[in-house]
Amino acid sequence: MSKPNKFPDQEQRKPGDQHKMHPEPELIRKDYKGSEKLKGKVALVTGGDSGIGASAVLHFAKEGAHIALVYLEESKDAEAIKKQVEQEGQECLLIKTDLSSEENCKACVEECVTKFGKINVLVNNHATHFPKNSLSEISKSQLKDTFETNVYPFFYLTQAALKHLKAQDSIINTSSVTAYRGSSHLVDYSSAKGAIVSFTRSLSAQLTDKKIRVNGVAPGPIWTPLVVSSFDDLSDFGTDTPMGRAGQPSELGPAYVFLACQDSSYITGQFIHINGGEIIGG
Ligand code: NAD
Ligand code: MG
User: What's domain 34-274's architecture?
Assistant: First the structure.
């Protein structure tokens, strides 16, 4: 990842708009063909309006799933993804909410179940980050924000969803390569991502009896609004990976399909590392 050189104040930070990115990210390859791997299933995807979450949403729709798409405020992006889901003949419920509130987390699971009658796949994917080069610059309120947005909702959403999930259903958590190798300018964010790895492993062990699988994806540098809105200098973004480039969201969506469907029936508590070839232990 490139070295950040200037950061806006945390309070000023807003999620980036995907439709304003140059070039716009590729969310799904034009030649991707679904094969009903998720036919009739309902998937709730947080941060589904853009980037990696939007890629998961579009691949799920190609595989026959209906979608509850949760996002913070980027309505134009969310509407565009909804349209593409509907073009696949699937339904898409948009839920605009701030997931840092426990009540909102519960409410969006209930909204999904009210609309579709069930939930089969929960993708905890949304996140934010506030880069800081020194530990001393991480204020109490930033630390709180990072964990209240990036970690607590994974617990609240999952608690609410577990009332509805059944055998063969699945939970997928988005972590990050930074959980495994650290990040000098994202200390609080990478710590939160580490918590998500441990959450995934612990919960997977708890849910084997119920035959609900819990896995995750740990992306490397991917071309999304999160990075564009956070870092000023992106000229060398991703060039330090073995493949020498950043990834596109379209390179992640198929992994979410794999973890959501029965192709991964003997896998739980694991992470898929989609990071351009960086070798990660775990
Ligand atoms: P993104 O900006 O496209 O997606 C993040 C989404 O999170 C936003 O669209 C926003 O709607 C949602 N969000 C943020 N705060 C929220 C809140 N309080 N309530 C509700 N929704 C909220 O970026 P992305 O890169 O696709 O991020 C998806 C996931 O991938 C994140 O968990 C991120 O940490 C992870 N990740 C990304 C990269 C990368 O290089 N892009 C690398 C490693 C991990
Ligand atoms: Mg967005």
Answer: 3-Layer(aba) Sandwich (3.40)
